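I have been asked to look over a protein record a colleague put together. The record follows directly below this note.
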Amino acid sequence: MADVVLVGDRIVGVGIGLDGDEGVDCAGALLVPGFVDCHTHVCFGPPGMDALRLPRSARVLSAVPALRTLLRLGVTTVRDAWGADAGVRLAIENGWIEGPELLLSLRQVGTTGAIGDVWAPRTGPLEFYGDPSLPDPIFDGADAGRAVVRRMVRAGADWIKVTATGSMALGIGVHDVQLTFDELAAVVDEARRRGGRRVMVHAHGARAAELAARTGAASVEHGTYLDEAAVAAMAECGTWYVPTLSVTQSDPEHAPDGAAAAHRESMRLAIDAGVRIAMGTDGPVRPHSEVLWELRHLAAAGLGAAGAFRAATIDAARLLGLADDRGELAAGKRADLVVLDGTGLDCSALEDRVRRVFHNGVEVER
């Protein structure tokens, strides 16, 4: 039992017998840091909606309920893995809409024919954004890779999202490697030159994940089909793994054949190799209301309950370069806190245990 004292948006004390002007009774509850989702999409609408063909204003407005849902479930920081632009972040910062702190990647960049290249044989090009706030993401060659980073940074990207394989959702090219070493290395280097930004790589297959590690990318996203060589490279290079297990584990019967088991095996290999793991959900592939299901999947896949909480708090903050500011209950850290009913770490029904949420020291209306 301990007291946590908040002043403004900061934790200023953690200890026994501390006093404050007002008290919040947390008896019979577990107090944890605000959760961090390192891979979500807040502008894609609910599952089943063809967000790519919606008017731009509808895509942006669909973020309002998504952000509210995430915040009320205790998610206080998110990294959007493409879809949201700088205007959504600005709206949150100015209090026009409520939501977690939002880190942006804008669009997923990739080579010609990658899943960010919205062209189909029947329809030809489908430039569903046509907006400089969400720039052209396609590049071929190392120099063009540097140029695409510059376009994203100009438009406000905090992270650069690269697609290195096809899409499991689309059922195409999950084991492909869709760019060369020189192309990805150029993107990683240019991102680093631009204010120390880092690269997250969509990679289902092992060879693309290994490429991401060897070129210095910060994280591999999904990693459904990893092998020993891939996790060895990730461990050696300090590459984080954001497995987004909800995609295959929340409804395994509807995942592609073998994907659910392969994903769990990838987790086992990564854990055994000592790869660092952070939470991400890939919402709304599953509804944003299921965001906390990811902790139960992480726990069941080998991290255990305590490891799942770490992956969703301090370890996620470490991946995002924010561990000095949040991710744990410590003096000087941001006052993002979640009060959970019950004192155990069981992750099986966290969404039902959320009693109160504080973001930047202010209680969130629920």
The chain has a mean pLDDT of 94. The radius of gyration is 20 Å. The chain has eleven helices and 16 strands. The chain has one domain: 34-326.
